[in-house]
Amino acid sequence: MPEKKKNELAEKLLYQPKNGFDRISAAEMKKVNAYCEDYKEFLDNGKTERLCVDYCIKLAEHQGFKPYKAGMKLKTGDKVYFNNRGKGIMLAVIGSESLANGANIGAAHTDSPRLDLKPRPLYEDAEMTYLKTHHYGGVRKYQWVTIPLALHGVVVLADGKTVNVHIGEEEGEPQFIINDLLPHLGREQGKKPLNEAIPSESLNVLIGSKPNEDKDVKDRFKLGVMQLINEKYGITEEDFISAELEVVPAGKASDIGFDRSFIGAYGHDDRVCAYAELAAIFDARKPKKTAVCIFADKEEIGSEGVSGMLSEAFEWFLGDMCKTQGVDLRDCFAHSFCVSADVTAAYDPNFADVYDKKNSAFINYGVGLCKYTGSGGKGGASDASAEIVGKLRKLLNDNEVFWQMAELGKTDAGGGGTVAKYMAKRNIDTIDAGVPVLSMHAPRETVAKLDCYMTYKMMKVVFEQA
Ligand code: MN
Ligand code: MN
């Protein structure tokens, strides 16, 4: 067969993105798969933001990172981390250049949409016992019924002691569930819009039905379960008031597809980018500028709160390191570069009408760069400059990182945001980039392994060369 003649002019002038599988070498594909095994481990160990912090510390200490203390004297190559109240974490590798030249920052978040318990969650109805929930972040409520659920979190007891609760993940442990209506009686429910069919107040988790033996005691079904909870954890009903208990989908991450090219799991948004940052800061070789990794909490509810990206915990950490080098934090910010590493929507042919196909992120095309997020006329977007997009584009091309440019979806379809604007507000040049996700915010989200690895590769290049 004669080789098909290429049109050189078209090659030169027209932009034709290619599927990563048509570009990647077998050797690099091996790296993709090895990386994703570690990432799945990270997901299984990090079902909540608190568990992510614990697991990050475990991995970081193994890599020689030390807890940061105020005023600590640091030299080139030193590795430190700062645990922000067990819910957020920042890590840094000290570069050979002064912080006056700025830092290379990766900002991701490790909180994911879920159902939190209400402060007074426990009740019985129709001789069954339930926990009331208040959803955290943008969940599609109909997706949370009839799936196996686990419970994770902390309870601060009346005496001030903290008890950890983790149940529903291990083999043999009981799980929990929110029930739904049977189709036979669902005629009216079936006519409702998706977002009204399962009201928030019906997201009640079934936790038992065995009563206390005393037939005359009030709330004997609630008491029956409370007795077991008390035996296991030493907590009383009032203790739920000072607790943070999160209901999350039970189970582990798994490969998806005959070819295992995808990973299905809860919480890819945004642990897939957090892990990319983490692995990249571990692997970054001799960064000139200080490399900083942030895993913020509270992104899904607006980045507020002491553990969110709006918190000055970041100023405290980076500011204190600046102080020890005699650098003004504002000078450091002004010269810093930040990748707001957060997921973007992957084009889904089953819902083609919400995407602008020419400006969508495609599965297996690599890390998705977003110049702007926001909604409508770029409302609430940080909108990276052409110069910043150009800088990252060149870095990625020079280092054979597969990337694509994307918007979330059609301009009028909706919108979303990330921590990018809060970093930009600090006078830091910032751009969004992350892994394209199918079924974002669902109890089980889907990502392509190739895109996960390219996001890691991007972060490594940013830490080493930006
Ligand atoms: Mn996100
Ligand atoms: Mn999100």
Are there runs of 5+ residues with pLDDT below 50, and where? none
Helix-strand category: alpha/beta
Number of beta strands: 22
Outline: globular
Task: Give the termini separation.
Answer: 45 Å
Q: What's the multimeric state?
A: single chain
Estimate percent helicity: 25-40%
Present as ligands are: manganese (II) ion
Largest sheet: 9 strands, mixed
Strand order of the largest sheet: 1-2-3-13-4-14-20-16-18
Instruction: Summarize model confidence as the mean pLDDT.
Output: 97
Q: Helix count, per DSSP?
A: 11
Write down the Rg.
Answer: 24 Å
Query: Per DSSP, what share of the residues sits in E-state strands of 2 or more residues?
Result: 15-25%
Protein model, in words:
Helix 6 (268-283) crosses helix 11. It contains eleven helices and 22 strands. A hairpin with a 2-residue loop joins strand 5 and strand 6. The protein is an alpha/beta fold and 466 residues long. The protein has helices spanning 8-13, 26-45, 49-62, 194-197, 220-233, 268-283, 313-324, 329-334, 386-398, 420-425, 449-465, and strands at residues 66-67, 79-84, 88-93, 103-109, 114-125, 128-136, 149-156, 162-167, 204-208, 243-249, 254-256, 262-265, 290-296, 337-341, 344-345, 367-370, 374-375, 403-405, 415-416, 429-434, 436-438, 445-448. The site of one manganese (II) ion has 3 residues, from loops.
Summarize the structure.
By secondary structure, the chain is α/β, with parallel strands linked by helices. The protein contains 11 helices and 22 strands. The strands form 4 sheets. Strands 1-2-3-13-4-14-20-16-18 form a 9-stranded mixed β-sheet, with helices on both faces. Strands 8-7-10-5-6-9 form a 6-stranded antiparallel β-sheet.
